[in-house]
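Bench notes, bay 3.
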Amino acid sequence: MVLTFSPRSILLCVVFLFSTNVLAVSAVLGIDLGTEYIKATLVKPGIPLEIVLTKDSRRKETSAVAFKPSQNAPKSGSYPERAYGSDAIALAARFPGDVYPNLKTLLGLTTDDSIVKEYAARHPDLQLEAHKTRGTVAFKSRATPKEEAWMVEELLAMELQSIQRNAEALAGSDSSVRSVVITVPPFYTIEEKRALELAAELVGLKVLSLISDGLAVGLNYATSRTFPVVNEGGKPEYHMVFDMGAGSAKATVLKFQGRTVKDIGKFNKTVQEVQVVGSGWDRTLGGDALNYLIVDDMISKFVETPAAKKVSVAAESVRGHGRAMAKLFKDAEKLRHILSANVETATSFEGLYDDIDFRYKITRADFEKLAEAHAERVAATVQKALDVAELDIKQLDSIILHGGSSRTPFVQKQLEKIAGSDKLRGNVNSDEAAVFGAAFRAAELSPSFRVKEIRISDSAFYPAGMKWTNPQDKPQQQRLWTERSLLGASPKEVTFTNHEDFSVRFYQQVPSAEGAVDRDTKVLTTKNLTASVASLFEKGCAHPDIHFKVKLRLSVEDGEVEVDKAAVECEAEVQEKEGSVMDGVKNLFGFGKNKDQQPLKDGEDTSESASTTESTETATTSVESSTTSTTSTSASGESPESSPVPKKKQLVVIPIDYTLEKTGIPALSKADLTKAKERIKAFEASDKSRRLREEALNQLEGYTYKVRDLLDTEAFVAASTPEERATLEKKASEISEWLYDDGADAPRDELKARLKALKDLVSPIEKRIEEAQKRPELVKSLRNTLDQTSTFIDTIKGKIAEADAHMSSLSSSASSTSETSSTVTSVPSQEAGDFEGLEDEETTASTTTTAAAEDRGPVQPLYTLDDLKEITELSVSVVTWLEEKLAEQEKLPETADPVLLAKDLIEKTKKLEKAGMDLAMKSVRHFEKNKKKSTKKPSKTKTKKSSTKTGSDDSEPTVDSKDGDNYIKFGEDGKGPTAEEIEELIKRMSKEQQNRDEPRTKHDEL
């Protein structure tokens, strides 16, 4: 049978295919990229805002990646094992030169930056160097000596890739995670944002938007709240988010308000708005800085110990020792966390430096004394944000705390001193509010989700402007945006007097130790300005009237400068166009130009109708009043050809072609970008190969233990010969010894081959055990099916024989029955015309049924002998096969491979059941076909159709088609009827037929 599909079906299939693909990529990710920890939240249909857990089921991952050097030199095309998060930090004491923590602080910075120099001093074993073309930070790894130095963006990309893998594991195998929103600190410059976007690009992540840390927290704060509606008289709320993490401290002032805006149709809606109005920060005030206070105190006390003095240990020597510094920093962080809840703590080191042990103790009072200068910097950060926002501390409704270091006791004391304890709020999750805000933003930007409408406005955070050279060759500079300017706001229009192609350089003003520095970000270069100005000059524009205008804005995604429009324009006198579509319409209605409205001269045709004359006069008046700016025509009877063509002032605009290129730190060339992506892919492929090899190793090792257990199992011993067990035991022992010698480093293919060799010995024995367990039940099931089939066949054959005998007895009286029948039916036909429709339906039905019942014999069978032929032959063949196989199986010992298999028993049982089902369904379909034909027969009157029941020898048994106890539904959910349903159907059909055959004489008494 050939299947055909309608166009509609094909269209639905295509829509379904594309809809499934859309769902497969609809998952989005919000990432809170912290200095010490990375957190991620997944948003997917069915998974709203769920934290992505690490492989250790932790809700945050340590921001670190490590290369674990292999014992032997790495092979060509292979890379060392990578570790992430806490696993990477755990390797810091052993491999301090290949563990890369806190990479966020190095993004977009050159190697001569003070922050980079401090990082290098804190991690002395790392081989930090400048990238060959960009001048940014790169690391040379001892674990990959043949590879070029790894850019900091490549290392961060590996961390993002690890987060991506965890997110896809949470989303399910049918989903891929490609779209992300990442949080960034407000002090990130354009260069640092570009470096982060590069890291995401290297692993195939699309950055939908970057969002500042404070705004992300504020967005999460607004998701469960509503604020006063400002255009209905409400006053906005001002809250400060104080975020102090491991690397920095940030204070962001946010304005929260509601606003009623136009909705679809005549309706209005209220939306919530969150806007950054000011921000302050300290780039180096964070948990790491506090940890280094403790580290420095540890070193100073260590060198004063007698054991250290004895060997003349210097503080600089300890600071330059990578392993010692890794141990000290790891314990310093633990001590600081303990001091947040306890007044004192202690730790000890075994062989810290030069095999010298060291014990250290510190109290909270000692720690706060060390951090006195840092406490003052907290107040400066808060005040900076207030100054930019032009607000007083009293105008704040609250200070929302975020970040792990904000829980430090002396930090909270400083904030209470500034604003009072009543304004400090812990009403958001101080660890996860930012990542939830980023995920909400990702869902908002994705077309796959609908979320609460919250309009956010991030800030530029840095002043920005442009520089260019004017026509007099004098350099000019103009500030376009301040630190309070909002990203995505209405574009600014700038007018230039330059009439020849030139360049405009955009800059960002960044503070530094030497003062504010203008860092170039982009350059705009015109391509056809000179030619366009010349074209305008030819059209009559004077040079002073020609202006080059550009509309600029800051991108809402990353704060980059964007050009909305660039055009050169002037006002020029141009001739009105003749024969335009508008002129044709005007002339059609009598509103033509003056030359078409001239008075007729002597002798000209004046046979115009009155309506035409009237409309012409009206048009003449209208045109004269609307063309006062042009030269007036003479009142004398001049011809239309001699009148001058009117002109009008018109703004002429010519778009300018331009290029907008990034400047600053050089971008990677296409070749370098491709090479970096390939290196990361090769590293990932190496890791995957290693994971698969380790899985094969674990499977082989585990199977050797399984073999040992099987050799002690009674069922396994009974089903196997001594020779088989001896061979298996020898093979397992050889593989175990090989694993502990050279097998641990064997390739995956060899491990799989040895595992297959073991399984080939075990599988036949396990199959014998399995067959012996399943066989009795399956044989019993097959015998039951055979018995049911045999009973069914015998019953049907008996009914067929009984029906044949009855038909033979009726054949002798066929002629007399025919005469009687014709006599009975001829009388009513003569009077039908006078009494049609007036008969007593009860009496008619009773008489007809009784007469038919006298001639009815046994129930007509549902099948013929030909119908039973196939199932009879099948039943006989199965019985023969079963008896032969059982006899063969009984002769075999338990240790021999079986000849009567479970799959064969199941197959034979299914064949019998299918044959019975097909036979039953054949009768059902035949019955339903006849029933449909009978229901389509028209009746002359309603009374006869509803109550007259005439029985005959060839009538079929019926099944009540109404809902109720007697109704059986077949084939629901795409399944065929079960054996029980078929048997029940046959019983009910037979029962109904018998009910029809019984004489109905209850109405004869009437």
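Next record in the batch:
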Amino acid sequence: MFVMRLLNLVVVLLLRNISLTKAEPVTATTDLRECSSATIQNCNSAEAASKYCYKDNKIFTLDEDGACTTAAAITLTAGVKIFDFTTKAEAVTTGALENLATIVLFNCVENGTVTCKRTYGYVKTDTNYYSIGADGKNEEVVAGPADTRAGVLDPATFKLNVGDGVEFVSDGNGSIYLVELLDNGIFLSTEDYKKAILSETHFILEAVSNTFIFSKFNSGGEFCVLKSKVVTNLDSEKQNIFCDSFDNIYNCFKDSLCRFYKSFDKPGKYIEDDGSFYVLYVCEGNPIVCTKDDGTNDGVHIFKKYSNEKYITFIKLTEDLASIDIEKEDYNMFECKSGFCERTNGFIKYGIGFSKTGECSEDFYYCTERDWESSIEGNAGKLNISGTGFTYTIKHGLFEYDAPKPVTGGKDYFFAYGTYKYDYITFSNAHLVAFVKNVNEFDDIYITTSTNVVGKGAEKCNSNTYYHYVIRNNYIRFDSGPCNNQIDSSALPDNTETNNGNCCTSTKAESTYCYKDNKIYTLDEDGACTTAEPITISSKEGVKIFDFTRKVEVTTGALENLETIVLFNCFEGDKCKRTYGYVKTDNNRYYRIGADGINEEVVSGDADTTSGVLNPATFKLNVLGTIGPRNGVIDPDTYKLNIENGAEFVSDDSGSSYFVELANNGIFLSSKDYEIANTPSKTIISIMAVKNTFIFNNVLSFDLELFGLHLTSSSLVFYVFNGVDTFTGNDIFGSFDSLYSCSTDGICKLSVTFAGKYIKDHISYDNGHEIRLYVCDGNPVVCTKDDGTNDGVNVFKLINDGKGTLVKLVEDLASVDLESEKYQLFDCKSADCRRTSGYIKYGKDFSSVGRCPYDADCTVQAEADNTGLEGLYRIQSTLKYTGTGFTYTIQDSTPKDLISGNDYLFVEDKYSDYICFSKTNIVAFYIEDIRKKEYDVYINTSTNVVGKGAEKCNSDIYYHYVISFSYIRDSALCENTDTIPGNSTENENENKKENDNENENEEENENENENEQKNKEENTEIENNAIGYIISDENNISICKQSPKDIICTEYTITETSCTSDNIGKLFKNNEKNSNEEISICLNYSDKEYSVKLNAVNQGNYVLYKSSTTNEIFGTSNDKPYVIITINKNSVLLNTKYSNGLKYVYINKEGNTSSSMYRIMNKGDNCPKNIENILELECNNGLCSEHLNIEN
């Protein structure tokens, strides 16, 4: 019994001892708030300090009335501050906190200046632990039973319950954690908790300087989280920020409160946008953790973009292209390297059996089905996309192609798609072709002729198994030919294999030389490179006269060692090529440096007027013509070449280009090179007059086509192919009589002399790619640009005469033979021609029919039966060939014979609207400019012809079609057009009869407010390329988004009944309150809803905040989270043209009324009382980023 009493006494004493060690909570007694600017403007009160306020990093004392006293302000430095208001200094933390009731926590951040905010949390001193509570209770935390609630400091371990438990850290860098909201009055007061828990779930906590505090400084945005620890802020302004791994992503706001955003419940490979990059993550495990890809998935892939039931967007790599459905789902093409991805463009094979073709754009469009053509023509070749795989054909000229070869996975093909420059090499993967590799300005491309693959290690170009292409000034040299056809004009050996400076080990005496780039190497008698130091010819461009006896460049005086003089043509800084020609020294002596190995002085003598010879009587070079006009070669009065007596030497470095006839005289070309260059067609060579030399210009920067025009009986002026007349600015293609093709080695051959009507292709720096029609006639024949006489659609024949391909207009279709010859269809207007598609009747009695695609040659068609695709509202037309002519049907009308010279409405593909054009024996589909505006088409019901002058639609013999923003709306007989759905003009005037008086008043007011109305219309008019919502009524709404070729509109149904954070950017209607409730749009949601009703009163410009819906429709992003929209009764549309004449756009977030929230402020509007309600945005094309917080 005594033992039991003793034990009970011990237990009581122990319990009493424990209760004595636990301190009671104390009520914080410090009266502290943030200062208003007015409070601290005049600190002149002499009363005793009673309370305090703080602003930035200053603490001010106030008297009992709240007036600022004369006491000096206390300054806080950066970091977490444990401040004791009893001692007016930072608390001593070497032991227990002495004045617990007056302890306050500040979090001070330095960013140029120090800014502080009061905060709450846990504190560790050297000996004790404390909670500084937001509910006004400060308390010591002592050892005790475990408390595992999230966000609580566990008395059993003194770790904060986050993840597996977090210890205090002593340094000032700290870590950030995401903690569930907890109603214990420590980090958030009870009042703040009740507000936060309505919409948020977590808050940001910072472990720093022996404290756990509620982090009051946060820029907002998306945060990566791994086991509750915040890894990084995806919206950080810092560059190159990304998550290495995470399990969840949270959306956090500037008050440091957060809500769950997304996690990945299915394993896979996903792309996340961190604000600067697209980052690829591999998500796997149980539970799933996402880790940044380490390069394992490098390459080009297709990603599916989709949203879950909460409208959260995911971008997931698609492993199996056979399973995708482009028509119903959204896909993009990305190229990924070491975990970073970027959009690219290309084509894919997909669907069952990979029988469908999709096109993917590198812009913000999604992949779309490509089902309207069988091949894609690039600037360097043709990609054939029909069937289940790809084939590729090399292009050797404007219309000439090699045989198609299958595209093999993992190989590169030179293609150059979607640009006038030659910027891309194709990357091929299984069922995927992407354009991802850049070609540099001076790259050499070698194509294996047997496979069409870009060759590896083919730089020597020593066999005819490769074609050689060179990029110069961003343009390609076509017809470079097999490698073994290149002319070697160098008699001096050019050992490109061994003379790289690494194999020069011979110590024998020098015997011969070789050169590479701008270096000359010495060789022994066996041809081995010696140890002698290479000689640098020059580091500058231009002609170099080199003396091999003295091994120096000759710049002045007579040529003393004539037998060892060599000429070099140096270009691109460090490259040189041996050349030949004439030299004039500064003592007026003249020399011939011949390709036949003969060097000799030219002395005065009898006249010799042979082309390409320096005339001994005048010391002028006899030339045919010049690339000109330049350097006074053209007489401004007669516009004739002043070179009948020869071209003179010039002393400057700029030079002039001339042409001479090819001759076997050993001057500019050796006999061997002459035999290679000489062909039955007339040949000329390029000569450059520069720095007192005439040299063979064997390093033209790129291939040329020269248009020759005879100005006198013996002289010509030539114009270069690229279309830039840098000398006069005139239209250099106005007329010509001959065409020469020049390769980069300076050899030019006469391609053709013309008679007929021909198309020629031009590349112009100013105008891009042009195809022009010329009429060639007269004696002698001169070709002149067509003046419009031959406007219209015509058939052209491709003629290959062995010298180049001619494209000649066919005057008589009865002579056409599609089975053995090539033909194409062109539509020409004022000499500007473009390929088009259609049908032709040809042959004897025009009894045969041919189909002419716009991307391939015409082919024999046994029967024409072409049903046009359906438009948005089921418009369908059919074209048929009956054997004697064409018939045309629209909708349910009876077939009508096509009448030549008329237009017919025919939607040939699902993205573009076409008009069917008919002329004798030709039916062509040419694009009318009807895609970017509201366009009315009237069809004569008796003939099916597009009516002329039927705009008033005052007769029931016409059907009325409205094409609105690239889509065909429903049709009706003209007498019924008042009820056409989707006709915006009719919608705007639907109540016209009922509101005549109101309209008359509006017309009167319009005159009084002309300037104001003009400004309003400029900023609120519906754009032609409308993106957004178009509303006929509640049950007929379209949503329009951008597609690769045009705007794609689909039906939209309102499903939302309120504005929440999950449906920003969506239309909603609160049917529960009022069945007649107007439609509204949710503009933003932050603590409360920001929305506006769609009606005439609220018409104007607003901004809409980013969301998955807004991103998809209007193109908002983390970088540009706002978009300008124009709201009308019947539409909510992107406004890319808004301008207020200022640098920034200003928004009143709260508005002066409930209907003006997030409305753009105009000049004269009243500013809100609370300056924080103003948004200052920097906008471009309607997309905006927040500039700064307004303070003044």
